[in-house]
Design goal:
Number of strands: 9
CATH class of one domain: Mainly Beta
Structural class: alpha+beta
Helix content: 10-25%
Radius of gyration: 27 Å
Shape: extended
Number of helices: 5
CATH topology of one domain: Ku70, Chain: A, Domain 2
Distance between the termini: 39 Å
């Protein structure tokens, strides 16, 4: 298991109140994507993404530029940039620098998974972080954590990460931690009006079949741990086989038959019914 690496040391603060709780933030997820490089087909060597100055070294045959000679630039017009140093970012006059700045609280649902559906559109959620206390703030951190848990409260916050201010939710999690989830801003959500569909008039039979299928796939308790990334496992197997000199035969997937789907829906219900009977028989 990888050691948890702190991404930021911040203060948990509250709008207009003299409370300052030192905390650390840690990434709550670790993506397991396979890493690939682009190779030159003829020789099999990796291609490079070289950092060089197109003015001082137009052909890119000189040494690569090191990070200490690079600054961030904002293009205000074609080819005209404003340079920004680290000190410029630190000088931004907002409260949320180096803070998880709590603005207000909303009620969580009974599962404690999300604020009420009427409060936050699920499209808003972006990245997740664990928030843990620094040693000196363990007691007051625990006070706020336990109080939020008892009240079923989720904090709405602001935070600056990687030169961008984010909205965020902060909710009690397991094992004495808060979970912070950054949110997209409202103007970052795409307008879906061009995809809007007209309501289709359905017969009782059609609604009954669709409802039956959903009911047969419903579970009493959600357990995401039973699922795994089959694509990553299969792709890893292909990499290992090719490394051993095996020839890979492309998989030809049969196309689904054309039609309105009613026959397929009926067949799916029959399959689920048979599976249910088989499970019940095996459990005896």
């Amino acid at each position: 298991m990888c050691a948890m690496r702190k991404t930021s040391t911040l203060a948990l603060t509250f709008e207009g109140l003299p409370v300052n709780i030192p905390v650390g933030m840690y990434k709550a997820v670790s993506e397991k994507d396979l890493a690939f490089k682009n190779l030159h087909i003829e020789c099999g060597c990796p291609s490079s993404m070289k950092r060089y100055c197109k003015t001082c070294n137009p052909v890119g045959d000189g040494p690569e530029l090191s990070k200490d000679v690079l600054v961030k630039g904002f293009e205000i017009s074609k080819g005209n940039f404003v340079k920004l140093e680290e000190s410029d970012f630190a000088a931004v006059p907002i409260e949320t620098l180096k803070e998880i700045h709590v603005l207000e609280f909303v009620s969580a649902d009974t599962e404690g998974l999300l604020p009420d559906a009427s409060d936050i559109d699920p499209r808003y959620f972006e990245e997740s972080y664990f928030v843990a206390p620094e040693p000196a703030s363990a007691r007051i951190f625990s006070m706020m954590l336990q109080a939020a848990d008892i009240k079923g409260a989720v904090a709405i916050c602001k935070i600056v990460l990687r030169e961008k201010e984010h909205m965020a939710t902060l909710r009690p999690f397991k094992d004495g931690l808060f979970l912070l989830q950054t949110l997209y801003w409202t103007d970052e959500l795409k307008d879906h009006s061009e995809l809007k569909q007209n309501t289709v008039a359905l017969s009782e039979k059609e609604m009954g079949m669709a409802t039956k299928l959903i009911e047969m796939l419903m579970v009493d308790e959600l357990d995401l741990t039973k699922y795994k990334d089959n694509y990553r496992e299969a792709l890893t197997s292909i990499v290992e086989k090719k490394a051993a000199g095996e020839i890979i035969t492309p998989l030809v997937k049969a196309e689904a038959p054309a039609g309105d789907g009613m026959d397929a829906l009926a067949a799916a219900i029959d399959i689920l019914a048979e599976n249910k009977k088989a499970k019940a028989k095996a459990a005896k």
